[in-house]
Design goal:
The protein has about 675 residues and is α+β, with helices and mostly antiparallel strands. The chain has 10 helices and 42 strands. The strands form 9 sheets. An 8-stranded parallel beta sheet has the order 7-6-5-4-3-2-1-8. A 6-stranded antiparallel beta sheet has the order 9-10-11-16-13-14, with helices on one face. Strands 17, 19, 22, 24, 27 and 29 form a 6-stranded antiparallel beta sheet that branches. The longest helix has 15 residues, at about 150-165. It starts with 17 loop residues before the first strand and ends with a strand.
Length: about 675
C-alpha cells in the first residue's frame, strides 16, 4: 500500500488499532459473555491500559443465536448477553472506550456451531450494528460459498460507510487472496496469515510471513499478523517480549488476547511498555523491515516521525548470541554520533555507528536510535550516492548507493540504467521510498535524472518528488519503464532538509525500481567576486593520463612537481595547469562566475611537433568552448567561455585520435571571472 493506492479513506485507524479481543483466551467457552466484557472494560481503566492507548474492547464469535429472527436480524444470545449488545456497548462507551463486534463474510461464522454470517445481509447487519453503537468490526472468511473475496469485503465496506457511523473494518481473510494488494480500498487492516497459536514456533512463523509485506502498510491500512498471545501461558516472558516487540516493529494492531482480570504482573508490564507502544503508534505509519537475517539472528528497522529509527535485534536460536548492525544499515547517517535507548531496560548510551547487543535465546533487544547533530554537507558539487543520508526508507530491500535496487540484500543491484542510459552515480530505490539529507541551509540546488531502472523488463510506474523541507520543489509525474530519463532540477536555497520521495504510479508497487541517477547537490558559495588564476583555486577533482595534474608547471608524466615552466611554442606562462591527455579538471562555481579566458596548447616538453590534443570547456553538461585539434607545432590558442549560472567548470583534454603519446597539454594563464 502506498500513498497513491485507494484506501477505505474513512479517517479511522491512522495508527494501528489497540485494544482487546476475547478469542485467544476464551474461544466460545461459557465464561464468554457480558460479565467478561464489562470486566475487561473496567480493567482497561484500573490497570492503566486505557491511558497506555488501548481503546477497543472487541468481542469475537458466539455472541449471537444460531438463527436470525423473523425479520432477518441478528439476535444476541440472551444467556451470554442478557441485556443485549447495545447495553454492553453503552457500558464500554461510558468508560471512554470503544466497542467492537465480530461476523464473517459468509453464510455462517467460523465456530462449529455455525452462527449467522453477513453474506447477503451486509446493509441490514451494518445498520443494526450502527444502532447498537459498534465502533469496530472483525469480519472473518468462513463459509463464503466461493464468492470473490473483493466482492464480499467491498459489500460490507460499502454497508458500513452507508450507516454514517465511523466503524473500523478489520478484514480477516487470512491472506488467502493476497489482501495486501487490494484490501486497503475497503478496510483498515487485513489479516496476512492464518490464526496465531500461543507458542514460540507459531508466533515467530507468523512474524516471518508478515515481515516482507511492509511496503503495503500505512496510516489507515495495516498488515495484521493476528492478535496478541502475551499472558496466555504458552511462551516464556522473554518470548512474549519478543512477540510484543516484533508486533510493534511491524506496526501491527495490538489487540490483547489474555483475560485482563487475572493477568500476571509480568504480562501486564509487557503490554504497558510505553516506549514500545510509541513505536507501534508512531504517526509516520511505516512498518519495519528486515535489514539482515542470518543464522537465526534478525535485525529490523522502522522509520519514526522524529527522524530516528526503532531497531529490533532478535535471537531466534535456543542459545544466547550477539546481534549487530550499524546506523548506516538501519537507514540512518550523516551524524557524528547516535543516542540509543533500550526500550526494555530503559538504559541509554551513545554510538558512532555500531549497534550491538548480547541477546538471550528467543529474546529481542529493542532500541530507539536518535541521530545527534548532523554533519555539515561539504562545499561543492556532491554526488548524493557518495553522501551519507540522515534517513532512508524503502519499499523492497535497502536504498542502494551507486547501484540499482535488487529488492533483497544490500549490494544485490547492478549498474544504474534508465532506458539504456547507464550512470556511475546515484541512488537505487523501490517504491515507496523516502530519503532525507541534512542541508543546514547551505545548499542551493539539485540536478538529477530520474526513471524506472532497466532491471524491470516490463511494468513499473512511479512518481519522483523532491522536497525542500515540507515544500515540493520538483515532480516528475508518472514515469514508466518505457520512458527515457527525465532531468529534474530543484531550488534548495535556504532549505534545512532535502527529501527524495518515490510513490507508485497508481497501479501498485510491483516492478517499481526507481533510480535517482547522477544526482548532484550544489552546496556552499563558489569563488569570491573578482578575477582568479585557476591554479590558485582548489579544484573539486582532477585526473590525468600520465602523472598528476600540476599547478603552475607542465606535466612531467611521473611524480608531482616533476614538470617545468609552462611553455607553448616558445611562449612561457607563470600560471596555469599542466596536464596529460586524457584529463579532466573540475571546479565548483556555485553559480557565481561569469567567464573564463585561457590559452591552450601542447607543452614544448613534448618536443617539436609531437603531441596532438583537443581542449574542451564545459559549463555543467554544456560544451562552451572547443579548441579543435592542437599539435606541438601550433602556437597557443586563446579560448573564452561563458560560465554564467554554471555550478561546475570542467576542463577536459582528449587525444585527437592518434593515441596519447606526447600529449602534454597546458591550460595557460587561465583567468576565472566571478561575481
Amino acid at each position: 500500500m502506498t500513498a497513491s493506492t485507494p484506501t477505505a479513506d474513512n479517517g479511522l485507524a491512522r495508527t494501528p488499532p489497540m485494544g482487546f479481543n476475547n478469542w485467544n483466551s476464551t474461544h466460545c467457552r461459557a465464561e464468554f459473555g457480558e460479565g467478561l466484557v464489562k470486566g475487561i472494560a473496567d480493567a482497561f481503566v484500573s490497570l492503566g491500559l486505557k491511558d497506555a492507548g488501548y481503546t477497543y474492547v472487541n468481542i469475537d464469535d458466539c455472541w449471537a443465536l444460531p438463527n436470525r429472527d423473523a425479520n432477518g436480524n441478528l439476535v444476541p444470545d440472551p444467556v451470554r448477553f442478557p441485556h443485549g449488545i447495545k447495553a454492553v456497548a453503552d457500558y464500554v462507551h461510558s468508560k471512554g472506550l470503544k466497542f467492537g463486534l465480530y461476523s464473517s463474510a459468509g453464510t455462517r461464522t467460523c465456530d462449529a456451531q455455525g452462527f449467522p454470517g453477513g453474506l447477503g445481509h451486509e446493509r441490514q447487519d451494518a445498520t443494526l450494528w450502527a444502532s447498537w453503537g459498534v465502533d469496530y468490526l472483525k469480519y472473518d472468511n468462513c463459509n463464503n460459498n466461493g464468492v470473490d473475496a473483493r466482492q464480499r469485503y467491498k459489500a460490507m465496506s460499502d454497508a458500513l460507510r452507508a450507516t454514517g457511523r465511523p466503524i473500523v473494518l478489520s478484514i480477516c481473510e487470512w491472506g488467502e487472496n493476497q489482501p495486501w494488494n487490494w484490501a486497503a480500498a475497503y478496510g483498515n487492516s487485513w489479516r496476512t496469515t492464518g490464526d496465531i497459536t500461543d507458542s514460540w514456533a507459531g508466533m515467530i512463523g507468523i512474524a516471518h510471513r508478515n515481515q516482507p509485506l511492509a511496503p503495503y502498510a500505512g496510516p489507515g491500512a495495516w498488515n495484521d499478523p493476528d492478535m496478541l498471545e502475551v499472558g496466555n501461558g504458552g511462551m516464556t516472558d522473554t518470548e512474549y517480549g519478543t512477540h510484543f516487540s516484533l508486533w510493534a516493529q511491524m506496526a501491527a494492531p495490538l489487540l490483547i488476547g489474555t483475560d485482563l482480570r487475572t493477568v500476571s504482573s509480568q504480562a501486564l508490564g509487557i503490554l504497558r511498555n510505553a516506549d514500545v507502544i510509541a513505536v507501534d503508534q508512531d504517526p509516520l505509519g511505516r512498518q519495519g523491515t528486515v535489514v539482515s537475517s542470518s543464522g537465526g539472528l534478525v535485525v529490523m528497522t522502522k522509520p519514526l516521525a522524529d527522524g530516528g529509527r526503532s531497531v529490533t535485534l532478535t535471537n531466534e536460536n535456543t542459545t544466547a548470541g550477539t546481534v549487530s548492525t550499524s546506523a548506516d544499515a538501519i537507514g540512518l547517517g550523516g551524524a557524528a554520533s547516535y543516542r540509543l535507548k533500550d526500550l526494555w531496560s530503559k538504559r541509554t548510551s551513545t554510538t558512532t555507528g555500531t549497534i550491538s547487543a548480547s541477546v538471550p535465546a528467543h529474546g529481542t533487544v529493542m532500541y530507539r536510535v536518535t541521530p545527534g547533530t548532523p554533519l555539515p554537507v561539504p562545499t561543492g558539487l556532491n554526488q548524493l550516492g557518495d553522501l551519507r543520508w540522515t534517513s532512508a526508507a524503502n519499499g523492497w530491500g535497502p536504498v542502494e548507493r551507486n547501484t540499482s535496487n535488487g529488492e533483497q540484500a544490500a549490494g544485490d543491484g547492478r549498474t544504474l540504467t534508465v532506458n539504456g542510459t547507464a550512470y556511475a552515480k546515484g541512488l537505487g530505490t523501490h517504491a515507496p521510498s523516502d530519503i532525507a539529507y541534512h542541508l543546514g541551509g547551505s545548499c542551493t540546488s539539485l540536478r538529477v535524472d530520474v526513471g524506472v531502472d532497466d532491471e524491470v523488463s516490463a511494468g513499473g510506474s512511479v512518481v519522483f518528488q523532491v522536497y525542500r523541507d515540507s515544500t515540493k520543489v520538483a515532480d516528475s509525474g508518472i514515469r514508466t519503464a518505457s520512458d527515457a530519463p527525465l532531468r529534474l532540477t530543484a531550488d534548495l536555497t535556504g532549505g534545512s532538509t532535502l527529501r527524495l520521495v518515490v510513490t507508485d504510479g497508481g497501479d501498485g508497487i510491483d516492478h517499481d525500481h526507481a533510480d535517482w541517477a547522477g544526482a548532484t547537490l550544489a552546496c556552499g558559495p563558489g569563488p569570491t567576486a573578482g578575477s582568479h588564476a585557476l591554479s590558485d583555486l582548489s579544484w573539486a577533482s582532477a585526473t590525468g593520463g600520465w602523472g598528476p595534474v600540476e599547478r603552475d608547471r607542465s606535466n612531467g608524466e611521473q611524480a608531482a612537481g616533476d614538470g617545468r615552466t609552462l611553455t607553448i611554442n616558445g611562449t612561457t606562462y607563470a600560471k596555469g595547469l599542466g596536464t596529460h591527455a586524457a584529463s579532466t579538471v573540475a571546479y565548483y562555481l556555485g553559480g557565481s562566475c561569469t567567464g573564463l579566458s585561457v590559452d591552450v596548447g601542447v607543452d614544448d616538453e613534448a618536443g617539436g611537433s609531437n603531441g596532438s590534443v583537443v581542449f574542451r570547456i564545459y559549463r555543467d553538461d554544456t560544451l562552451v568552448a572547443d579548441s579543435g585539434r592542437a599539435t606541438g607545432a601550433d602556437a597557443a590558442k586563446p579560448l573564452t567561455a561563458d560560465l554564467t549560472g554554471g555550478l561546475e567548470l570542467r576542463l577536459v583534454v582528449t587525444d585527437s585520435g592518434d593515441g596519447i603519446d606526447y600529449d602534454h597539454a597546458d591550460w595557460a594563464q587561465p583567468r576565472l571571472t566571478c561575481g
